[in-house]
């Protein structure tokens, strides 16, 4: 199996449905409406997706739940040939942004990660845009206080329709000063201007999605020239209706224009995908072959928020 590096994965959003159902049964939590008849996560659109996501997340209540979640998620990554993954971690869901609680959750997540040695994991502490800038400040402080060999990045997810990227500049400045790598969701539901704002106002080096940059030629040139790396999640974009199918997805056009890009699954069980499925779809749609996938993995290793020794180890494994 091709060794893969995944840079855009929401820990809770990667929770296998069976794992969430099992935990809900243990805790006697009613999850009516969260799953469809086949046991998949059920949602109509992005707004509803966020609601279902938060309902499913409610069964994750203790640090040990997160240890088990991390293990379950990384076992799936390992099955897909992933050797390194960066997962978005949310102090909002892990202790309500309280620093002491966050430290307990983080220790448990690291324990879960250590139980799956096939996959090396790093955490990107992520604020949630629709919770607002004040919550983001608290999240950034949690990130800064725990920055180190495991927490290596800071990001923002959530509903792009709320506020602007610049509203969150304080949180990103705080994270930058703590030495964390920076990424934010943009150019998914927001247009090219949201990508520009992310670059100008938050000074990120990676963009979560960013694919709608394709609507603005000058912006595409800027991404290519500045070496901004896109965390592209084609399956997610298709399921959430950005593009009618993978053939109409701009990933190949962005690549042809010289934009550095990587491939990830975002919230894989929600979008009925896996890293293997993404690779297979790209191969079928655009004829991407092993050497191109190797380039993608090397780009991801170069863009990973990890130390130089880890990066070299990843590159060596990819070249082996
Ligand atoms: Zn995402």
TrEMBL record:
<dbReference type="GO" id="GO:0019239">
    <property type="term" value="F:deaminase activity"/>
</dbReference>
<dbReference type="GO" id="GO:0046872">
    <property type="term" value="F:metal ion binding"/>
</dbReference>
<keyword id="KW-0862">Zinc</keyword>
<dbReference type="Pfam" id="PF00962">
    <property type="entry name" value="A_deaminase"/>
</dbReference>
<feature type="domain" description="Adenosine deaminase">
    <location>
        <begin position="3"/>
        <end position="319"/>
    </location>
</feature>
<comment type="similarity">
    <text>Belongs to the metallo-dependent hydrolases superfamily. Adenosine and AMP deaminases family.</text>
</comment>
<dbReference type="InterPro" id="IPR032466">
    <property type="entry name" value="Metal_Hydrolase"/>
</dbReference>
<dbReference type="InterPro" id="IPR006330">
    <property type="entry name" value="Ado/ade_deaminase"/>
</dbReference>
<keyword id="KW-0378">Hydrolase</keyword>
<protein>
    <submittedName>
        <fullName>Adenosine deaminase</fullName>
    </submittedName>
</protein>
<keyword id="KW-0479">Metal-binding</keyword>
<dbReference type="InterPro" id="IPR001365">
    <property type="entry name" value="A_deaminase_dom"/>
</dbReference>
<dbReference type="GO" id="GO:0016814">
    <property type="term" value="F:hydrolase activity, acting on carbon-nitrogen (but not peptide) bonds, in cyclic amidines"/>
</dbReference>
């Amino acid at each position: 199996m091709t060794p893969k590096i995944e840079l855009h994965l929401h820990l809770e959003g990667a929770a296998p449905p069976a794992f969430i159902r099992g935990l809900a049964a243990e805790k006697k939590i009613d999850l009516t409406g969260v799953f469809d008849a086949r046991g998949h996560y059920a949602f109509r659109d992005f707004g509803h997706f966020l609601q279902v996501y938060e309902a499913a997340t409610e069964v994750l209540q203790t640090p040990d739940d997160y240890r088990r979640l991390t293990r379950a998620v990384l076992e799936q990554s390992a099955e897909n040939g992933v050797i390194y993954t960066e997962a978005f971690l949310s102090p909002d869901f892990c202790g309500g942004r309280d620093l002491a609680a966050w430290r307990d959750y983080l220790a448990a997540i690291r324990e879960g990660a250590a139980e799956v040695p096939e996959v090396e994991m790093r955490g990107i502490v992520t604020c949630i845009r629709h919770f607002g800038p004040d919550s983001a400040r608290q999240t950034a402080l949690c990130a800064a206080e725990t920055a180190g060999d495991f927490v290596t990045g800071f990001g923002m997810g959530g509903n792009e329709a709320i506020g602007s990227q610049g509203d969150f500049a304080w949180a990103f400045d705080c994270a930058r000063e703590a030495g964390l790598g920076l990424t934010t969701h943009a150019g998914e539901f927001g247009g090219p201007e949201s990508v520009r704002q992310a670059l100008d106002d938050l000074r990120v080096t990676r963009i979560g999605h960013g694919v709608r940059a394709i609507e603005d030629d000058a912006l595409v040139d800027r991404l290519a020239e500045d070496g901004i790396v896109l965390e592209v999640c084609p399956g997610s974009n298709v399921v959430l209706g950005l593009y009618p199918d993978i053939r109409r997805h701009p990933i190949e056009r962005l690549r042809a224009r010289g934009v550095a890009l990587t491939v990830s699954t975002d919230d894989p069980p929600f979008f009925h995908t896996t890293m293997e499925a993404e690779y297979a779809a790209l191969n079928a749609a655009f004829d991407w072959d092993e050497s191109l996938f190797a380039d993608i993995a090397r780009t991801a290793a170069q863009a990973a928020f990890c130390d130089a020794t880890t990066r070299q180890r990843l590159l060596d494994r990819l070249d082996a």
